[in-house]
Every structure is written in structure tokens, then in C-alpha cells.
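Follow-up to my post from last week.
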Amino acid sequence: MDFLNAIVALSNFVLVPAIAYGSQLALGALGVTLIYGILRFSNFAHGDTMAFGTMATILFTWWFQSLGISFGPLPTALLALPLGILGCMAIVLLTDRAVYRFYREQKAKPVILVIVSMGVMFIMNGLVRVIIGPDDQNFADGNRFVITARDFKQMTGLDEGLAIKTTQGITVVVAIIAVGLLFWFLNRTRTGKSMRAYSDNEDLALLSGINPERVVMITWLIVAALATVAGVLYGLDKTFKPFVYFQLLLPIFASAIVGGLGSPVGAIAGGFIIAFSEVTITYAWKKVLTYLLPEAWQPDGLVQLMSTDYKFAVSFVILLIVLLFKPTGLFKGKSV
Amino acid sequence: MSGSAYQDDRGNKDRSITKAGSPGSATGARRKGTAVPAPGGPFLIGENMTGGYGKGPNILENCTIAVDEGEIAVIVGPNGAGKSTAMKAVFGMLDLREGSVRLDGEDITSLSPQDRVAKGMGFVPQTSNIFTSLTVEENLEMGAFIRRDDFRDTMEQIYDLFPILREKRRQAAGELSGGQRQQVAVGRALMTKPKVLMLDEPTAGVSPIVMDELFDRIIEVARTGIPILMVEQNARQALEIADKGYVLVQGANAYSGSGKELLADPEVRKSFLGG
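User reply:
Got it. Predicted complex:
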């Protein structure tokens, strides 16, 4: 019984939140890794692209709510998501036209694009704050829980409860669908294969008649969709605050690099590795250990390795370790 | 590539922010010209070509290279003679300062390389001539990217020509041996059903046995009726199978004639074939 309680407590406080957070990071890291594979630079504006897409979705959610439209037990934001994605695609394509295309025409070195993306990051960040304000926005509605801790306890008769929030369930389902669609697109469709070909060998892709500008445009569209989905899921699960999205850039980059930049599978693995490390290292293990260990060994303290304030440090320590021992990432990042 | 601030990467080698390898370097890709009818002459000819890379000095000086239907034409010459450059000039990856390129009765000098592919040129570059992370089959599919019709027949023909590729079609092309990679590269170029095939040192870096096999395959391709223009390091072997040979020296035609004539020419033998 104690063992079961320990597993339930572990699931409730570590596994479920980490899986949800990992899915969000994985979706974010996929966007970063696609830009890296196709446009050859690390897009520092990715966090703020997520913020923009989420903001667009929130605005549409509010509009739907004012019209009295709801999605039953599910959050209204899911209905607004396609419109938010369109909004994000528009801003991203506009940015590409106005900014990045110029540098492509100059055949600028990728490192210059990295700095350019920083400029885009600041502008997009400012834009989001001007439009929706710098404060917290909670836009989740519908049922809060798929299963509450109390229901779980009654159902199983255990001392520990397992609560699964609706947003966590949605996160996992939507992430699986998004990743499935992305892989199907990249591996099965003519356009997807042409993107991989372009990422592999630009000159040869050109000689095969693949239009670079089209590949770049489709990449941005996919990245906008992924960024919006990741941002909305994170916002539903926690809360939307522009500055937090700006900070999310750090674990997202850590995920992409740990997995191997340019490798979509790596981005997903990296997202979960970072998420699980952050959650396990900042979790107070006292409760789980109390169930598992004999009475004499039970800990007095919280057995929390690090306070949650340091969670970004965890991503970076893992990043450093991976870069030291396997500089190309766990899944050798060669190309998309 | 100096002079432009955009080309200065300030010594950045950080692969966690920028991807390694060179981005697309093909010049001429943005060229937007049209083909002009110019009847007469050989099937494919680069005539009096003069030009070099960017604003640099001329590498080609009045160089002429041609291939006719059903022929194999070979370009040989010492290192740095401009053999590959001549090939790139014919394919449009170099801006010509003088001269013209004509294919099948049309002047295509102002066409971009990708437009020339659509016109029926197949080109196999010397290096990075396959998509290493794609499977063999995907490489062939990408070769047929400009085709909107059903290309399964063509793919079958290529598998018949290179049976090893059928066996390895689900494997990443980058995992194949040097000779097999070259077969993928040639197969990729054949997928468009080109009217002329251009090979830039197809036997570079493969063992002598594989080299013989590749030459056999190239002759087989030529027998299907596709004219072939190729650059070769192994001058003697290449001239043996050539209907037409060009010896380039310092970007200009030094000798030309049929393969047999060149092999018999004492001057050519002395300077390029080692006696």
C-alpha cells in the first residue's frame, strides 16, 4: 500500500506535471530546431513568437467569450487556437519579408541572422506588451480537472490523490497530434521531403528545382503554428505573462541543443529530459521517501535538491554536461 | 568574399547558434533570363566562354566545349586547368563575361541553373552531390522534384541500371560507400529524364575496381541515347571511352579531337598521359 501511495504521489507531483511541461518544451524546441535546420541560425525571437501567437489566441478567446461561444468542458482557447495560429503566421511572414529576406539576399552569414533575430525578439516582445500589457492573463475556462485528487482517493481508497488537470490532458493530446502531423509532413509529403533536402544540401536542392523561398516560407508557417500551440498550451497550463515567455527561451534552447540541433526527434527527447530534470530536482521528495523508506531512515528535511528559483540553472547544467561530452547533442543533429 | 560586412562571421564557430557548413553558394541562381532560339550547331555547346568567379580574374579564356547526340565528351587537363569551372559555366553556375551556351537549338546563356534543369540538363556536381540524410529512394524522388507526372517508371529504370540502389533504397544515402554514392548521384540526375548528362569527376575518390564499374555504367547510360559531358582526372581511361576529348590548359582549349586521336597525339601523351 505504501508503495502504491508512493507511486501515486510521484505521479501527481512529478510525472504528470513533467510530462505536460516536457510536451510544451518539445513543441517549442521543434520550432527552434526547424529554423536552425532550414535557415541555419538559432532564432532568439522564438519565445516571443510563442508569446505573440498566444496573445492572438487570447484575444480571439475573449472575443468568443463575449459572443457567448464556449467549447463545453474544454477551454474556449482551443477554438480560438486556429485563428491565433493564423495571426502568428501573419506576423512571422511579415517579419520574414521585412527583415530576414533582406539578409538572405545579401547571403549574410548565419551569425548575423542570430543577432538580427535578437532585434526581432525585442520588437516582438514590445509589441506584445503594448497590445495585451505586461501582466498575467488567465484565460483557461471549462472544467479544471479531468480527475480530482478527492475523486481519485474515493475511487482507489489510497491515501494519496492523483489530480490530472484538463490542461495537462489537452497538452499531451494536442502535442501528440502536432508532432504526428509534423513527422508525417516531413517524411511522407513531397513538400516535407523537399524541406529536408534543402536543409541537407542547399545547392543540390536548388539544382533539383526546389524553390528556396518556398521552403523558407513553409518553414516559417510551420514554426508559427508550433510556437502558437506550444505557447497556448503553456499558457493554459500555467498562465500567460509576456516576460515568462521571454524566459522560456532558455529551457527551450537547452532542450533543442541537448537533443541535437536540427534533429526533430532530438528536440522532443530534449524537451522531456529538461522538463523531468527541472521537476525532479526542484521537487521536495520527503513525501515519496516517507512512503518508501523504513521508519528509521525517514528524512527530516524536505529532500529538495534545489529551490524552484533555480530551475533554469538545472537546464543549463544539463546543457553544459551534454555539450562537454556530446557536443552534437544526444541525437546527432545533422539536418531536419 | 571579403568587402561585404554581411559576409564577415567574426570568427564565429559556435554550432549551438549557427549551423555548420556553407549555405547555398550557387551563383547564378537568381538569374532571371529566358531562352532564345538559336538553331544549328551541336546539341550542347559552350562557345568561346570567358569568365571567372565573382569579380575575380578570368579562369576560362575563350573555352569551347561541345557534345552531340549519342556521344560521350570528356574534358581532361592538369590540376587547376579550369575543367570543373568549364563544366559549371556550361551549367550556369558562373557568370560568363563573353561567349554563349546553347542547348538543343536554344541560347540558354541567361538561364539560371535550375531553369537549365527544366530545359533538360542533368548535372552531377563533384562533391556534395547527394542528400546524405535522405534515403536512396528519397534522393531519387528529389531528383524528380520538377516532374509532376508519374515517375515510377524512371525510378525502375534507374534501379535496373544500378541494382545495388534497389537493394539499399530504404537506407540513408550518407551511409553508402563512395561508389554507391556516385550511383545515387547519377541516378538522381537521371530522374528528370535529362536530354544531356553532365558529370563532374564521377570517379573522384573511389577505388580502381569501383572506377571501372562506374565507367561501365556511364557507357551504359550513354547507350540509352543520352549525350554525356564529363570531367575526368583519369585522363587515359576517360579518353578511351570518349567520342570527343578536350584538353584544357589554363582555362583555354589546348587540344581537342576524338578520344583516340588525343591518345595517339605524342604532345598530349607527353604532357598529360605520362608518355
